[in-house]
Amino acid sequence: MSCSKLKLICFSPTRTTRAVLDCIAEGIGADEVDVADVTLPENVPASCDCNGNDLVIIGAPVYGGRLPLVAVERFSALKANGVPAALVVVYGNRAYEDALVELKDITEKAGLKPVAAAAFIGEHSFSTESAPVAAARPDMQDREKAEEFGRSVARKLAEGDAVSGPSIDVPGDRPYKERKENAPAAPFSSDECRLCGSCAEVCPTGAITVGETVETDPEKCILCCACIRACELNARIMEVPRILAASKWLVENCSERREPEMFI
After folding, report:
1. Beta-bridge partner residues of 74
2. Is the pTM of this model over 0.85?
3. CB neighbours of 36 closer than 8 A, spacing ≥ 6?
């Protein structure tokens, strides 16, 4: 089978996952691409039927070796009946651990057929100018590899046995790595804030309210740092001690460049 219709499904607060998926879609070269970006709560459909598509690409970032819980919840709307899927996780140069196998289980439960998978690298959410971790990734080299991955997926579909063959094997353990329970925390806005609302517009959980001041609900915040990236005045500040400590550890231990891994 060839791929004439492609459905791209993603959760991507800082847009790194979306950038990778767009490159993969470019490599696949489908005639028609339907995008279901469930990053923002108002974009989450009651159901997400994939049965009208030749191929689904689904992707999310990795938080602590797992998929973000909010992404897992939003992917629960997926419904399909044997539609082939390419699975993608994007991690911040440390490790993706059980995220890819978790995504495989989610898609299979939804009725999708995983035929390819990949783990790409994106700039870490905690990366800053003073503590860079995988800064500016995905870079041109990553994007070229993503396009080649897309071409490889297209070739596999064209060979005709992708759906009838076994699902792709991916790294990861079951049961998955246990999620860490940490005290709620969130960035805050400094005196430089001009109440433009850009932070609230990109928050994937609706944790930010802009009025006479900017209020951030730490119970809702997932520390994705999308609000920090969106603020043109650099008025969003992360002064959570454990996040600052994690950033320091990442710089010291995870600065060596990692490369994408692909499973086809």
Report:
1. none
2. yes
3. 7, 8, 9, 10, 43, 45, 48
Phi, psi (rounded to 5 degrees) for 12: -155, 80
The number of beta carbons lying within 10 Å of the beta carbon of residue 171 is 15
Return the closest-CA partner of residue 91 out of 119, 116, 68. Answer: 119
In this predicted model, what pLDDT tens digit does every residue of 172-223 receive, in sequence order? 999 999 998 899 999 999 999 999 999 999 999 999 999 999 999 999 999 9
Between CA 131 and CA 95, with CA 136 as vertex, the angle to 5 degrees is: 70
Rounded to whole angstroms, the Cα distance separating 162 from 155 reads 10
Q: Which two tokens stand for residue 152?
A: 């490889």
The pLDDT score that the predictor gives to residue 1 is 58
Are the beta carbons of 19 and 61 closer than 8 angstroms? no
Looking at residue 165, what is its pLDDT? Answer: 77
Q: Could you tell me which residues come within 8 angstroms of residue 56 by beta carbon, excluding any fewer than 6 positions away?
A: 6, 7, 8, 9, 50, 80, 83, 84, 85, 86, 107, 112
CA distance 71 to 94: 20
Extended beta strands in the chain, E state: 5-10, 32-37, 48-49, 55-61, 78-79, 84-91, 113-121, 188-189, 208-210, 214-216, 236-237, 261-263
For residue 57, the one-letter residue type is I
- Tell whether omega for the bond before 138 is within 30 degrees of 0, i.e. cis: yes
Per-residue confidence (pLDDT) for residue 3, from 0 to 100: 80
Query: Is the CB of residue 41 less than 8 Å from the CB of residue 71?
Result: no
